[in-house]
Amino acid sequence: MPGQRWYTPYLFALPALALFGVFFVWPALTAIQLSFMEYDVVSPPEFVGLDNFVKMMGDSKFWTATLNSVLFLIGLFPLLVVAPLLLAVLVNQRLPGIRTFRMLYYLPVVTSMVAVAVAWEYVFHQQGVLNWILTGAGLLDQPIQYLLDPFWALPALILVEGWKSMGFYMMIYLAGLQTIDSSLYEAARVDGASAWHRLRRITVPLMIPYIAVAITMEMLDAMQVFTSVYVMTKGGPQDATLTLGYYIWSAAFEHYEMGYASAMGLVLWVVLIGMAMLNYRVTRGRS
Amino acid sequence: MRRAGMYVLLTAIALVFVGPFLILLSAAVKPSSQAVFSFPPDVIPRPPVLDWVEEAWTVIPFPRYVLNSVIYVGAMVPLHVLVSALCAYPLARMRFRGNNLIFLAILSTMFLPGEVMLIPRFLVVSQLGMADTFAGVILPGLLSAFGIFLLRQTFAGVPREIVDAARTDGCHELRIFWHVMLPAARPTLAILGIFGFISVWNSFIWPLVVLKDSAKYPIALGIAYLAGITGTDVRTLAAGTIISIVPVIVIFMLMQRHVLEGMRGAVKG
């Protein structure tokens, strides 16, 4: 074969492998190492054994952040796993102009999280459109300052995160729906099955692999929420929106506790891998 | 009749997804005589003005941020595609020791979530002397499992005969890669280009961590900076935010078919 020597393939892969080594393997090893150290960037790192992990156990802020991240996980489930499936079914019809609707639903996905966060601050404003709708419908007596209210701030951010990514999950499901043979639905219709029945008996069972993908991604996304918190609430009010992603960032880059932040990152990392594997097992067992 | 109901439903949902942007747009072009917030909402500007757009353009070094984003996009999008294609080619078309290992290693990067890698990657970049530089923002973003995966699929589907014909003509591998494989993969390259543009234009966390000097900020970071300046008028902020999302929305509208098909390709794998 002209031109191909044993090392040819490696030469092609070299740039990717170099980047992999420098920006993935090396940092991953650094992360593990730092978890057992105290490092404030100024003075040299100092080995402290398991101190960081012990500190984590007694750090009430860490537990608040963990709880909030779990609340994100739960709150985003209906928004990113369930609702997008219904949306996908809706836009999977043959209708003139349906592509335009798909595009509009996908719009927040291509827009930056920062822009989305700013846009929603206008919606959540005391005299914003959300308060107008809710008071107008008689669901609220008094307008709420959603982002300044310790009870409402977290649900508000969950709504923003869900709204931003819903179109992405819809497209995942749409990809799946388009693999389903339409004769299955026609047969069911002839048998007089209702729309709900068709969804439950045909769509959902055939979509299980896609639902599994959506669940895995939803978990990874929910546990890493950062930008919306950074722009809209900085973790407040009273730590009500402090998430693991934000707490780790703040420990590292506001308080320069690199070792402690790495230790928390490592724990999060193990949890995420565990979640992904568990999800893979469970769904593989079912299909 | 059923169809009409369907369109009402589809439009109502569309309003939910577009509404917040419309509110932003309305605040950005309202004259100062008209309140931004009121019950009931008064969203039609009378008349629309560009004062706030002008103001946003000068309160922060907006042109600088736009230029920076153009630089990041201009460097990262082609390099990311090139690195991915170079790696994908042997994985798709050559037999060699360790090919599975390389593929698995690249795929495993998907399980190293960005947030978790933030701190150690920042420290590595600092040790390399790339903190607060354009290179520090650009280089770590060039490797993606998504790009390699998608191109590997595409290259694997290029007909054998074309490649064999080129080989008989005495083409060496680099020429085959450049003159046969890349042209054959044009649609996939376009998809990667669009996705790359969107993600680099919107990039936020990594530049936030790497950059100290705000003169190197990409546009999304510039908007967060504008939002953080106390006393920024709500109209100015709205105008700045609108300007920052216009390019990405224009590209998306022009290329939407590719974007949506790319999603499908990536999921099916």
From TrEMBL, chain A:
Pfam families: BPD_transp_1. The keyword Transport applies. InterPro entries: ABC_transporter_permease, MetI-like, MetI-like_sf. Residues 66-279 form the ABC transmembrane type-1 domain. Keywords: Cell membrane, Membrane, Transmembrane, Transmembrane helix, Transport. The chain crosses the membrane at residues 12-36, 70-91, 103-124, 207-232, 259-280. It is a multi-pass membrane protein. It is found in: Cell membrane. Belongs to the binding-protein-dependent transport system permease family. PANTHER family: ABC TRANSPORTER PERMEASE PROTEIN (PTHR30193), LACTOSE TRANSPORT SYSTEM PERMEASE PROTEIN LACF (PTHR30193:SF44). This is Chitobiose transport system permease protein.
UniProtKB/TrEMBL annotation, chain B:
The keyword Cell membrane applies. InterPro entries: MetI-like, MetI-like_sf. Belongs to the binding-protein-dependent transport system permease family. Keywords: Cell membrane, Membrane, Transmembrane, Transmembrane helix, Transport. The chain crosses the membrane at residues 70-89, 101-122, 134-151, 189-209, 236-255. This is Chitobiose transport system permease protein. Its main location: membrane. It is a multi-pass membrane protein. Residues 66-255 form the ABC transmembrane type-1 domain. The lineage of its organism: Bacteria, Bacillati, Actinomycetota, Actinomycetes, Streptosporangiales. It is found in: Cell membrane. Pfam families: BPD_transp_1. It comes from the Bacteria. The keyword Transmembrane helix applies.
